[in-house]
Amino acid sequence: MFELIFLGTSSSAPSVHRGLSAHMILHRHYRFLLDCGEGTQRQILQSGLGFKRLDKVLLTHGHLDHILGLGGLISTLARWENLENLEIFGGKDALKRVSNLLFSVVFPDGRPPVKIDLCPLSPGLIMEDDKFALSTFPVFHRGSDSYGFVFEEKTRRPFLAEKAEALGVPFGPERARLVRGEVIVLDDGRTIHPDDVLGETIPGTKYVHIGDVGRTRDLLDICRDADTLVIESTYVAAEADMARKFGHMTAAAAAKLARDANVKTLILTHLSRRYFERDIRQEAQAIFPHTYVARDFDHFHITRGGATRLKNPQPTTSDQ
């Protein structure tokens, strides 16, 4: 399971009720900040998440509405949090801008009090452990060096304790070895195979997050069978020409991608102030009914069944 908290859902410029792009993704002991628009640190505080263990930042691209909050946030982290190392992942263009912001403005002496690693992205795996993998892929957005992200739990086979008990497998390292797929030999000489005590394979949860993007034809295979897809929806179909001009997405195009890729849940964000929330929601749901339009501080659980909204701020007049 992944937890997703929207910290900013506006496009280009903030509105009274929507901050600029920022999201927190939680998975076990991991905390990822995905994009960091202006005002993100205040949104983190207002959400109640706080700054503890916030040591990984993922950037979709280097446009200012997605990175400008990094200066203030990292200044705060360096001064007040017990943080030894901060990793910032992004394309080369994004990291060049971030480097200028941090080492020319925030830390002009070039000696930040916390170790900052700028990690260039390339398509493929970023990190993994025995239960989870994070990978990235390129997307097209107005000439920028842009990336999307796939958060995916690994498949697993549940350990069937009753079968192990019946076979006389003792508690301890023997059971752990079977879970890892190893064959064991008991003290009485009997050989126990993993298939003897493991159930059917259970697929892991797949969550795809795409920031600003101007076309979907390269994304179908990446998004296929995702339990949740988060993607921008800056425009509606009536202004599709403008969306193409600026390398952005319409609600209808996002919904068609979700439908064609057999996604379970679609969540739209990065909304223009020119529309009511209902404009975006109605256009998308006409094509893909299981669509949410995110608001600041929305909190979702993402599982194999799709996304469940846990916290839904009350709509304002401009949201409805």
What does this protein structure show overall?
- The protein contains eleven helices and 17 strands.
- The protein has helices at 40-47, 64-67, 70-80, 92-106, 161-167, 173-179, 194-197, 220-223, 240-246, 251-260, 277-285; strands at residues 2-8, 22-27, 30-36, 56-58, 85-90, 115-120, 124-128, 132-139, 146-153, 184-185, 191-192, 206-209, 228-232, 265-269, 291-293, 299-303, 306-311.
- The radius of gyration is 22 Å and the shape is globular.
- Strand 12, helix 8 and strand 13 form a beta-alpha-beta unit.
- 41% of the residues are buried.
- It has an eight-stranded mixed sheet. The chain has a seven-stranded mixed sheet with strand order 7-8-9-12-13-14-15, with helices on one face.
- The chain has 320 residues and is an alpha/beta fold.
- The protein has two domains: 2-156 and 201-311, Metallo-beta-lactamase, Chain A, CATH 3.60.15; 161-194, no CATH class.
The share of residues in helices is 25-40%
Give me the side-by-side strand order of the main sheet.
6-5-4-3-2-1-16-17
Query: How many domains comprise the coordinates?
Result: 2
The structural class is alpha/beta
